[in-house]
Amino acid sequence: MESVETRDWIRDGLRAVAAGALSIVLAVLNLPLFVLFVLSLVLTPVLGIGFFLLPAVTALIRLKANAARGMAAWHGVPIPRPYRPKPAGVAPVGWKRYHWIITDPATWRDFAWLLPGAVAGLVLGILTLAIPAYGVEGIVLLPLWIYLAEGWSGYAAMWPIESVGEGFLSLPMGLAILALGIAVAPYLRRADAWFVRLFLAPTRAAELRLRVDQLTVTRADTVDAQAAELRRIERDLHDGAQARLVSLGMTIGLAEELIERDPATARKLLSEARDNSSTALVELRHLVRGIHPPVLAERGLDGAVRALALSSRIPTTVDSDLTGRLETPVESAAYFAIAEGLANVQRHSGATFAYVSMHRLGDVLHLEVGDDGRGGADMTSGTGLAGMERRLAAFDGTMSLSSPPGGPTIVSMELPCASSSPRTMLSSGTD
Asked: Where is the Signal transduction histidine kinase subgroup 3 dimerisation and phosphoacceptor domain (predicted)?
């Protein structure tokens, strides 16, 4: 355990040192971007040069700011992008695009960050590099002196006794300073990330605007999904159970006409009607199960998912610590998302094993569906994964996919939830 923790500590520290070197390069780029932005503003009245120059410079600044946000997220400080969406019909250049950029508060927050960000990035980046570099210098100093002195005798003759002592002390001191530099490097990078967040994170108003935009999109997706679901139910009723019930009525009517003059044929028709009624009942049960499975209403999410795993063609295990019941819509969304995930495993993965994990932390339900298949799943191809994401988004849930070529594939989902009241639980269990 200690060796693993030591390796992780050293690995994280070395990554932070490398990130510090990169941050120095990125910080230097802030200075020319600052100058270009000022020039584009000053040259706007001059033959309209700014109308062409400002959008290009702003695009570069946003690219640079997004790179800083990405590095901050890599160090555990996520920063959402606060930019307003581009209005419809905005040309690559012109007054509308210029006005959209100039009136976006995020543009000016990016500009205000350029100089302070350059200073903070340079200072913290240099510190991140300088401490371990000083330690390396101390480690290399003693062997270098011995090499230059061509052996101990020449070394002792050329250097006074004080230098000899300093040379031997430089090795442990260098190791200690190197260890210190690797240890503090992640904290220095995180301090830089928090400084970036101070300037580049969305304001409260921007967060509310982004939230409204997200809810608008998810509501539209939910309405479309519900409309599609209603069309599916209507189609299944019309083509399945309704057609069979119509045929059943016609068969019974014909049997009524034949029961006096041809009882044998009438009995045969009634037997067919009984078979058709059984088939229609089965189709109705399947339709109801697709709307809200009875097993979900009776056993809750834990029991319903375990039933899904038992019916899967691929061996599937379920790891769950769920107790009690959740709100019915949340249970339904989680159940159908997991069902779609397992269906994708059976159809596309070529896996020999799958698993489902369900854990609740506070008011967040964490779900995971994984397999040992061939991998290569893509959110943009097909409708299964996209449908899962839309279903979760309707409840402010999120989904992420990890599926490198060769596998494994892991679909991770988070869904806000709250326990049902006893009254809701009682009604759910007795429906």
From this structure: 229-296
Question: Residue 110 in contact with residue 61, Cβ under 8 Å?
Answer: yes
Specify the range with the lowest mean pLDDT, choosing from 15-19, 92-96, 185-189, 312-316.
Answer: 92-96
Q: What is the pTM of this model?
A: 0.52
Tell me the pLDDT tens digit for each residue of 248-285. Answer: 778 788 777 777 777 788 778 777 777 777 777 776 66
Do 86 and 221 fall within a single domain? no
Look up the CATH number of the domain holding residue 315: 3.30.565.10
Please state the domain count of the chain. Answer: 3
Q: Look up residue 72 and give its two tokens.
A: 């901050």
Name the token pair of 299.
């056993």
| Tokens 């998302």 belong to residue | 337
pLDDT band at 421 (very low <50, low <70, confident <90, very high): very low
Q: Residues 118, 234: one domain?
A: no
Query: Of 150, 171, 200, which closes a domain?
Result: 200
180-186: average pLDDT: 88
**Which residues, listed in sequence order, are joined to residue 175 by a DSSP beta bridge?**
none
- Single residue among 144, 170, 200 that ends a domain in this structure: 200
Check whether residue 286 and residue 185 sit in a common domain: no
Residues 113-153 have pLDDT tens digits of 999 999 999 999 999 988 888 888 777 766 666 555 544 44
The encoded tokens of residue 229 equal 């679901």
Is residue 362 left, alpha or beta, with left meaning phi > 0 and alpha meaning psi from -120 to 50?
left
CA angle, residues 173, 175, 179, in degrees to nearest 5: 115
Taking the C-alpha atoms of residue 153 and residue 146, their distance in angstroms, rounded to an integer, is 10
Q: Name the nearest CA neighbour of 322 among 287, 285, 356.
A: 356
Q: Is 366 helix (H, G, I), strand (E, B) or coil?
A: strand
Q: Are both 233 and 262 inside the same structural domain?
A: yes
